[in-house]
Amino acid sequence: MAAETKVPEVREVTRIERIGAHSHIRGLGLDDMLEARQSSQGMVGQCHARRAVGLMLEMIKEGKIAGRALLLAGKPGTGKTAIALGKAKKIYSLSLVRPKF
Prior knowledge:
The chain has helices spanning 47-61, 80-93, and strands spanning 39-40, 43-44. The protein is mainly alpha-helical.
């Protein structure tokens, strides 16, 4: 006779919360004069690039450009995604672009 095999009980699956690599980004880290702070709103470094994106946001706010696209180019690990997320959060906070639901 074959030995009986017992199937272990399946434990309840709990929800695992995923934390993204850029979940700490809250904005571009610029002051009122569009100068990049060395470390602010989750952003560190890339001061010139953040200032450039801040200037672009001001132009969008003033209606000088449509702001439909921005190309960020550079080597891997230089902060392109972080700057893009900071820009998106700033645009959303200014209500310059409202998501369509």
